[in-house]
Write a structure and sequence with these properties.
The structure holds two protein chains of two kinds.
Chain A (H helix, E strand, L loop, with lengths): L2 E5 L2 E5 L4 E8 L5 E7 L6 E6 L5 E4 L2 E5 L3 E6 L8 E8 L8 E2 L3 E6 L1
Parallel strand pairs in A: 2-11
Antiparallel strand pairs in A: 1-3, 3-8, 4-5, 4-9, 6-7, 7-8, 9-10, 9-11
Chain B lengths: L3 E4 L2 E4 L5 E7 L5 E8 L3 E8 L6 E2 L7 E3 L5 E6 L8 E8 L6 E2 L3 E5 L1
Parallel strand pairs in B: 2-11
Antiparallel strand pairs in B: 1-3, 3-8, 4-5, 4-9, 5-6, 7-8, 9-10, 9-11
């Protein structure tokens, strides 16, 4: 059974204080690992897809990396507008086109 | 493009009542999904569809039914609502494996 665990559950940082969010996964035949951002009262918004170990993707202050067991979302010099819940999901080789989500990390950036 | 829209945005039901949630997408996507999101549980897949006229069970299908009579619409039905179905429901659609587009959500309370 595919599983995704995110840590920490919540993270509070000062503006400009860099950090990383972790996504550990077990999956039968990884077809893709996805990062989403979710603001309160809204649906998840796509950020990145990673397909194989060693791959990296960047977008503004965010950088996602992937190993065979986990993914990290690095946040460099964050701003208050980066505050959100960040969700990680995997798509495995079985289970036809389905994503399995982690429980998310709630990130708060204080000015 | 409106993207993915959901109707209604909020609803309060009494135990035993029935209702239908509507998801519509104008991106000509083949795949559509219904998720529920509960605190600390992450997003869990209820049902999904890989094309018009097809449906399949996800992780938590009990108590729900779905229909995909038209490519652009995916309906989620609750025949006899229970308090355990109090949740936020999200619909998503996708064309390629890269990205699922999510709707804004429906907040359902069952008393």
């Amino acid at each position: 059974e595919d599983q995704v665990t995110q840590s920490p559950e919540a993270l509070r940082l000062q503006e400009g204080e860099s950090s990383s969010l972790n996504c550990s996964y077990t999956v039968s035949g990884l077809r893709g690992l996805f990062w989403y951002r979710q603001d309160p009262g809204k649906g998840p918004e796509f950020l990145f897809t990673l397909y194989s170990a060693g791959e990296e993707k960047e977008k503004e202050r965010l950088k996602a990396t992937l190993t065979k067991k986990e993914s990290f979302l690095h946040i460099t010099a964050p701003k208050p507008e980066d505050s959100a819940t960040y969700l990680c999901a995997v798509q495995g080789g079985t289970g036809a086109q389905k994503l399995v989500f982690g429980q998310g990390t709630r990130l708060t950036i204080n000015p | 493009n409106a993207g993915v829209t959901q109707t209604p945005k909020f609803r309060v039901l009494k135990t035993g009542q029935s209702m239908t949630l509507l998801c519509a997408q104008d991106m000509n996507h083949e795949y559509m999904y219904w998720y529920r999101q509960d605190p600390g549980m992450g997003l869990r897949l209820i049902h999904y569809s890989v094309g018009e006229g097809t449906t399949a069970k996800g992780e938590v299908p009990d108590g729900y039914n779905v229909s995909r009579l038209k490519k652009q619409n995916f309906l989620l039905g609750l025949e006899s609502a229970a308090p355990s179905q109090t949740s936020v429901y999200f619909c998503a659609s996708r064309l390629t494996p890269i990205e699922q587009f999510f709707g804004p959500g429906t907040r359902l309370t069952v008393l």
